[in-house]
Amino acid sequence: MTVARALAQWSHAYRATPEDLALAERALADTVAVALAARAHPLRGLAAPLPDAARWAAMAHVLDFDDLHTDTTTHISVVTVPAVLAAGGDARAHLAGAGVMARLGAMLGWGHYAAGWHATCTAGAPAAAVAAGFALGLDVTGLATAMALAVPAAGGGQEAFGTHGKALQVGFAAEAGVRAARLARAGATADPGVLEAWLERVGGKPATDFPMAPAVPGGLAVKLFPCCYAMQRPIAALREVRDQVRGEITAVTVTTPAGTVHPLIHDRPATGLEGKFSLPYAVAAALLDDYPGFDSFTDDAVRRPAAQTLVDRVHADLLPGETGSLLDGRVSLRIALADGSEVRTELALPPGAPGRPPSDVDLRAKAAACGPDVPALLDGLTWTGAAELLRKHFPYIPYERQEA
């Protein structure tokens, strides 16, 4: 029994629960909403010549507003939803791919992510092969073959964070899975054992015994701020005490386990994209802006003198030890003011976390933030309708037409 065959058997044997189907529908709506929010983003033109799955995944990820599987630090839906839509699938195909991605992510473990791999891409390519393969009607052998054919694309590094490369490499992973599934359906052969060998080479621990339910163990976290998930907790904590901060801020100390801010690689951000991966800027945006939304993560917003002044006054006190989650422990913040007083706050779970799920009000507010027309577009959205909607708003334009 290879890992690939075990995962393929799990995906075929799994029977979706009502809770899983609700999760899939929320994932569809969230992924489509955050893609539509990026309609004016410069990446739209750059990604236009890419195939459907790559184009849609890149646009749904570029604002870093899509959901996250905190147990494995992977953005599951932004890979599997576009792969399913490109292959003509539905919620059941999404759950097959999402479940495989969660289980692959668990095998890869925190050490894989801490080593600098972009786990959304590494776990994502084989998972997208299952999502698309299930939509295309592949049997267990076909799904195992498709995963093997997707292994060459199972890469991606965290150096891309803060650049277009992050969203694009997620798109490449989604498209690689669709391509692999189509090749497997056409009769291409591959050794399923390559998935197991690859897992070992990149620091994972292969397994073949998987829990049957739920489809996505631990659930999915919904972001309420359009930035890296590692910034959600400090932003949410500061919003709870923002009204208490009066006068000049002389220093802000953030105390948190080191692993919980691992993706935040830009201490002195100069662009909006870099600001989405910056702990100091998370503090600045939370204190300066009524709502740290899209307007907080533009180049001009990041370069504001007030923001840059605050960024220079943030100090991170990182607690030692490895972590297996971006929500490990708690985040504590101490805000020192010019009059000698201090404001303190701490938080374990931000709103939207699996243990603190988003309310209907939260979800409606997020949809509205993605565009005034988005709530209506999401109303009654089907999987077929979602594909048509994305084709309309993100049309394929080949390089030749662009250059002409």
Automatic annotation (TrEMBL):
Highest rank taxon of the organism: Bacteria
Record field: transmembrane: none
Residues of the MmgE/PrpD C-terminal domain: 225-372
Pfam families linked to this entry: MmgE_PrpD_C (PF19305), MmgE_PrpD_N (PF03972)
Domain MmgE/PrpD N-terminal residue range list: 53-196
InterPro entries in the record: MmgE/PrpD_sf, MmgE/PrpD_sf_1, MmgE/PrpD_sf_2, MmgE_PrpD, MmgE_PrpD_C, MmgE_PrpD_N
Family: Belongs to the PrpD family.
Annotated protein name in UniProt: 2-methylcitrate dehydratase PrpD
